[in-house]
Structures are given as structure tokens and as C-alpha cells.
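C-alpha cells for chain A. Residues wanted.
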């Protein structure tokens, strides 16, 4: 939530900061602002609404050329999205400017203290207290770096702060606690941002920062300390994707581009993780075979789409390993006092690796001495760094707020984990594991087949433009697919959508069925116990009550034809891997329906890409 950029170097700071904010706008888009250091003063502007409003204002009233600056794109927490609450916030004398991501939990106390000293607040935000506190320190003679260290020692909560001092044009200073911040290392210039996408066009060399660290960038260098001023050595990394991955490439939306990138994302996520004989090799896991053998329970924890990936994983992991597997929403996890032991493996799934709810869940698990394994798409993010082990998904940057290739590669990572555990613990024969690995290797082609059929899904979306409600039914591994289809539609098309386990219908939800209500039905492959036939009964039940049935079913299965108003064919796959193909039309449907409704698909209302507040 909230995107932050800081720059010092030789280029136009305004241009670098605005371009960086454009790439971070997926993190929040309620308001945006910049502050630049110019001849001993701070100049800048901030506007409610999307970044475009700020850019328009800057075009109409240009700022002077400067080479040091900060910027922010906001997802509101304290105070509504107005010009006044937009960041940056300045101290009373307009000497220090600061942008912030996170929540300063003791801000009310600090605000009271400042007001008692005669400071008048000009916004409703928690951030403004940091601006006044920093300014008080520099006016007392501290450097901005020392001021940041001193102020951070007093702050509680989660924060990334990036600040400039009008009287010190050579440096930008930042700090982080429980909120993302990376440094971009250039030649004669350096960058600070919430995410490497902000500076990827200038440099792919980056530094990760640990918790409770302060970083000072100048044109010549980078210095990192802890909050007490003790020097710290940051970890360097090289970003393995480039600017083109962060561009739309001719697609109208990042989301659509990312849906179409899924075959490649699956292939990349499988690459190097098995040998030719189908033996899994997850050397990167950093967990010993002994530790994996002693696991007696798995708890998967995640939020939103990542949680649904976890629900699919449960079916596969329990089937392949016979280890009991629970799936828990991360924000509920620690509050129910879960039973965790040294032999519990907690698997945290997070595309961003920064989701605060998931982070807090894994901290709780580690305090109870359970091992934590992260499945994450973002190199060096907080969740993998605070985990004992990590499987990175190789989806490349996901910019669209609605997760698509993130979900797809989370499923791949979960399958790999399940198979690896089965291999290590001997719960499946090598040939059985090899068969699944071979099928996984075919999934990029199967997903590509689904993408080739996009036009029929788009046509359906256009037909259903005025639908006020859509239901999704599934069973077994198709149930989480139904939930994911409904979530995509809610977040993008802003209409009522719900996913159900088809067997649950008759216990209540069937009352929702009325004439012409669109109901997507994800049909399990034929031959899986009685599942397939039970699902057919479910479709008949809703159709008998007037629903319009849209049936997602494997090629060659004609048993559904009499009960389907629309048929979407998917390539034949095994029950456990079918979600990889079945989810694609649901993603395409939501993307297109939101497009025809005129919504901003990449930046749906009220949402942000990574939710870094609890
Ligand atoms: O970055 P994470 O995977 O931890 O994010 C979890 C959810 O916030 C995320 O999947 C969210 O539900 C998406 N907007 C769904 O499309």
C-alpha cells in the first residue's frame, strides 16, 4: 500500500520520481505528490486522485529543475484522500518533507505532544507527526540521518519513511520497519523505492534492507545503519527482469498481459526444479531432508487469491504425502491460538511477500518454533527473508492489482512442494511422481490453448455486461477455482459474485437462483470417483430453477451438453492439476467484463496491490 520513491543524482528528480510513481501506482492511487529540494527550499505539489491529476497540475505549473526529490502515491489509511492528506507532509517551517507507507500506531500520542508544543497540524494523517519530529531534530543541529534514527526510535507500528531536508540538497534519507524499501544503486545517482519497478529503467543493481534500518543515499554512495546509528552491511542483489517486463507490451491492461504471460510463467517456475527422470530438485529450499521427514502437520496461511492457491494445494499435498494439511486465512491465524509445534510446517503464500497479515502469521508461527516456508514471487521481500525456507515463483513482476500469473505460479510451487515431500518421505513411487511432473510440463501448452480461445470468453463477458450477480460452483480442487473466479469478478467488475462448493448449494445458497442468473460450473474430470456425476446433478438443480449455466468442462466430455447454456472447453487434465487450466477462462471473463463496464482493470477502486497494513 502506497508507493514511495526517492532520488539523488544528476537527472531531473521530478522526472525520475514521477516515472517511478507511475510504475508504483498499482500500490495505491488515492492521491499523489512530490517534493524537490531547490536552492534551500522545498518545492512540490500534491493532488487527490490518480497520478494523472498530479502530472496535469505539474504541466500547468512546472517546478524548477532539481536533482534531489521524493514522491508518493497513496492508499489512504488515516484521513480521506484529499489534497491536504496527500503526501509529502512538511514540517512547520517547510524544511523537512516526508513520505510514508504504513501506519504509525502511536501517532495520537506524538501528535498530542507536538500540539502541546504549539505545532498546528494541517492534515488528518499519522505521517505528519514524522515530518514535525524530523524537522525538530534537524533544527536542533542533527543531520537528516541522525534525525531519522532518533525519530524512528520513537515510532511504533509499520513504516517506510523517506525524507528530504531543504538545507541539505545532497541526501535523501529513509527508514523501514515492517514495510518494504529497496535501494537502487546507480553510477553517480541512487534511488529509493518500495519496489524495484520504480528504478528498473535506470539500474538493475539493488540493495535489500533489513528491519529497523536507516539508509542515506547521496549521488556518490549509500550508507545503512540501524536505528541507533550502528553501521550495517546491506545485501546486494541483481534484478533478473528488465523494463520490458514492467511495460504493457501493446496490451490494454497489465492484467490482460499477465494472463497471457502464464504459459511462460509456469515454464519458468518449473525450470531447473526436476531432472529428466522427473526427480524433484529443490536445492534452494534450505531445509534438511530430516526436517522435512519430521513434519507431522502442514498449515498453509495466506490471504485473498494466495489463500485460494493454498486451498488447491491442500488437496494435492494431502493426497500425495498423507500429511494433514490445514489452510488458514492469515489474518485469522494467530488469533485462534493455533496448535503449532516444532514439527508443524507453516507454508506462507504471498505474491508480494509484504502482506502484513501473512507476515504477522509467520512471526507467530516462528515464535512457537514451527518451521516456516514461504512461497513468494518477490526476491528479497520481508516474508521470504523472515522464513526458514523459500520457494520463489518465477512469474516476473505482477503489476495488475488482480493476481493472475501470481496465482498460477503459486499453484506450481505448491505442487512442487507436495511432490518433493512425497519424494523425500517415500509416500509416492518415483514413477507416480514422474507422471505428475510430466503432466506439469505440459501445462504451459494447455494454458496456451485456453488463451487461444479467449474470444469466446470475451463474447460471453460482453453478453453478460448487465449481470448484477454471478455464481461459481466447483467441487474438490474445482471449489477453490470457483472462489477465485468470484473474487476476480468482485474486485474488477464490482458486482455480486460468490463461489460455492457445489454440494453446499442445497444447504442454502440455492435460494439465490433465479431466472437467467449466470452460474459458472467447473466440472471435475470424468472418472474421479463420483465427483463428476455429483457435479452434473448440481448443474441440473440450478438449471431447473432457471439459471443460465456456463459450464467449464474438459474436451470430449459431452455428458454436460444437455444441461449447459454455454460450454467452455478445457484440455483434459488430472483432477489435481485441472485448476491450472480451469481458472484461465474465469480470469479472462473478469478482465473483459470489467473492461466493457469501463472500469480501470489494473487499478480497481478501493484496492492496492500489496496490503502492508493489518
Ligand atoms: O501479495 P499477496 O499474494 O500476499 O496478496 C494477497 C492478496 O492480497 C491478493 O491475492 C489479493 O486478493 C488480490 N488482489 C486478488 O486478485
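Reply:
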Amino acid at each position: 500500500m502506497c508507493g514511495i520513491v526517492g532520488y539523488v543524482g544528476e537527472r531531473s528528480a521530478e522526472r525520475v520520481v514521477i516515472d517511478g510513481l507511475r510504475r508504483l501506482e498499482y500500490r495505491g492511487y488515492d492521491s499523489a505528490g512530490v517534493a524537490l529540494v531547490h536552492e534551500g527550499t522545498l518545492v512540490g505539489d500534491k493532488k487527490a486522485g490518480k497520478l494523472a491529476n498530479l502530472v496535469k497540475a505539474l504541466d500547468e505549473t512546472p517546478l524548477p529543475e532539481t536533482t534531489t526529490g521524493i514522491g508518493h502515491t497513496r492508499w489512504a489509511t488515516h484521513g480521506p484522500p484529499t489534497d491536504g492528506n496527500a503526501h509529502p507532509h512538511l514540517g512547520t517551517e517547510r524544511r523537512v518533507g516526508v513520505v510514508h507507507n504504513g501506519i504509525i500506531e502511536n501517532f495520537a500520542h506524538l501528535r498530542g505532544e507536538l500540539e502541546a508544543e504549539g505545532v498546528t497540524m494541517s492534515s488528518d494523517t499519522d505521517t505528519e507527526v514524522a515530518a514535525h519530529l524530523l524537522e525538530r531534530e534537524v533544527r536542533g543541529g542533527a543531520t537528516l540521518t541522525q534525525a531519522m534514527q532518533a525519530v524512528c526510535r520513537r515510532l511504533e507500528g509499520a513504516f517506510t519513511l523517506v525524507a528530504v531536508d531543504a538545507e541539505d540538497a545532497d541526501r535523501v534519507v529513509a527508514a523501514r520497519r515492517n514495510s518494504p524499501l529497496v535501494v537502487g544503486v546507480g553510477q553517480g545517482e541512487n534511488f529509493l523505492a518500495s519496489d524495484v519497478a520504480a528504478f528498473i529503467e535506470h539500474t538493475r543493481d539493488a540493495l535489500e534492507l533489513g528491519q529497523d534500518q536507516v539508509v542515506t543515499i547521496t549521488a556518490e554512495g549509500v550508507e545503512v545503519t540501524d536505528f541507533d546509528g550502528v553501521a550495517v552491511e546491506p545485501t546486494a542483489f541483481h534484478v533478473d527482469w528488465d523494463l520490458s517486463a514492467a511495460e504493457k507490451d501493446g496490451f490494454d491492461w497489465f492484467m490482460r498481459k499477465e494472463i497471457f504471460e502464464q504459459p511462460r510463467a509456469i515454464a519458468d517456475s518449473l525450470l531447473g526444479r526436476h531432472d529428466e527422470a522427473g526427480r524433484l530438485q529443490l536445492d534452494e529450499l534450505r531445509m534438511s531432508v530430516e526436517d522435512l521427514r519430521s513434519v507431522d502437520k502442514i498449515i498453509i496461511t495466506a490471504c485473498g487469491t494466495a489463500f485460494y492457491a493454498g486451498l488447491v494445494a491442500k488437496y494435492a499435498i494431502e493426497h500425495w504425502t498423507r500429511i494433514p494439511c490445514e489452510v488458514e486465512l492469515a489474518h485469522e491465524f494467530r488469533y485462534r491460538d493455533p496448535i503449532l509445534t516444532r514439527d508443524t510446517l507453516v507454508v506462507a503464500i504471498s505474491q508480494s511477500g509484504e502482506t502484513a497479515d501473512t507476515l504477522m502469521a509467520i512471526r507467530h508461527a516462528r515464535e512457537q518454533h514451527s518451521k516456516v516456508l514461504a512461497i513468494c514471487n518477490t526476491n528479497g521481500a520481508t516474508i521470504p527473508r523472515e522464513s526458514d525456507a523459500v520457494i520463489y515463483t518465477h512469474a516476473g513482476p505482477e503489476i495488475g492489482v488482480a493476481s493472475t500469473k501470481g496465482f498460477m505460479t503459486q499453484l506450481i510451487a505448491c505442487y512442487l512442494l507436495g511432490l518433493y515431500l512425497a519424494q523425500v518421505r517415500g509416500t509416492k513411487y518415483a514413477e507416480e511422481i514422474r507422471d505428475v511432473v510430466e503432466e506439469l510440463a505440459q501445462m504451459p501448452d494447455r494454458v496456451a490453448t485456453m488463451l487461444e480461445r479467449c474470444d469466446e470468453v470475451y463474447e460471453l463477458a460482453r453478453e453478460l455486461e448487465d449481470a448484477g450477480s454471478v455464481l461459481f460452483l466447483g467441487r474438490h480442487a474445482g471449489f477453490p477455482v470457483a472462489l477465485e473466479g468470484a473474487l476476480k469478478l468482485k474486485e474488477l467488475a464490482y458486482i455480486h459474485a460468490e463461489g460455492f462448493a457445489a454440494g453446499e448449494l442445497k444447504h442454502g445458497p440455492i435460494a439465490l437462483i433465479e431466472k437467467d442468473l449466470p452460474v459458472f460450473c467447473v466440472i471435475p474430470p470424468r472418472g474421479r470417483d463420483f465427483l463428476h456425476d455429483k457435479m452434473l446433478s448440481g448443474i441440473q438443480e440450478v438449471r431447473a430453477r432457471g439459471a443460465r449455466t456456463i459450464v467449464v468442462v474438459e474436451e470430449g466430455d459431452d455428458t454436460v451438453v444437455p444441461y449447459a447454456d454455454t460450454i467452455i472447453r478445457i484440455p483434459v487434465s488430472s483432477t489435481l492439476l485441472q485448476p491450472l487450466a480451469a481458472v484461465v477462462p474465469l480470469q479472462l471473463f473478469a478482465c473483459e467484463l470489467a473492461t466493457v463496464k469501463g472500469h480501470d482493470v489494473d487499478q480497481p477502486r478501493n484496492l492496492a496491490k500489496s496490503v502492508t497494513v493489518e
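Residues 88 and 99 are 5 Å apart (CA to CA). The first strand starts at residue 3 and ends at 8.
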